[in-house]
Amino acid sequence: MRIGVCGTFIGHGYNAIQVKSAWIKLITSVGFTDSFARSAMPIIGFADMIVALLALANPSRYLFYWAAFWCTITAVSRVIAGEGVQELLERFANIACPLVLGFLYSDNRKSIY
């Protein structure tokens, strides 16, 4: 599951760094300007890359809880942007995997995960 979280955040991070045009509306739909979205996306992308690397190199429950929260926010932004609730449901694994890892790491079972 850590590899899955890493892959999710590398993929999304890369797209954000590239300022994927389809994602602009996900940021502007919650009140930010187009200019802000274009400026923020590379920063968000680099942050996603850091989360991806930490998921493998230095995992912690806080990291995975953050990842689950961030994935929830981004999935909900699709609904707010008018893409429909199915877009949130399609991305539920992106939320569930880090959430489960957060629960497991909070139980101090690091050695097997």
Written account of the structure:
- The model has no long low-confidence stretch (mean pLDDT 94).
- The protein is globular.
- Helix content is 79%, strand content 0%.
- It has helices spanning 2-17, 21-28, 34-57, 61-80, 85-90, 92-106.
- The relative contact order is 0.16.
- By secondary structure, the chain is mostly helical.
- It is built from six helices and no strands.
Shape: globular
Radius of gyration: 14 Å
Low-confidence stretches: none
Largest sheet: none
> How helical, in percent, are the residues?
over 70%
Mean pLDDT across all amino acids: 94
Strand content: under 5%
Structural class: mainly alpha
Number of helices: 6
Outline the fold blueprint.
Blueprint: H1 2-17, H2 21-28, H3 34-57, H4 61-80, H5 85-90, H6 92-106
Helix pairs in contact: 1-3, 1-6, 2-3, 4-6
Note the main attributes of this structure.
6 helices; globular
Summarize the structure.
The protein has 113 residues and is mainly α. The protein is 79% helix and 0% strand.
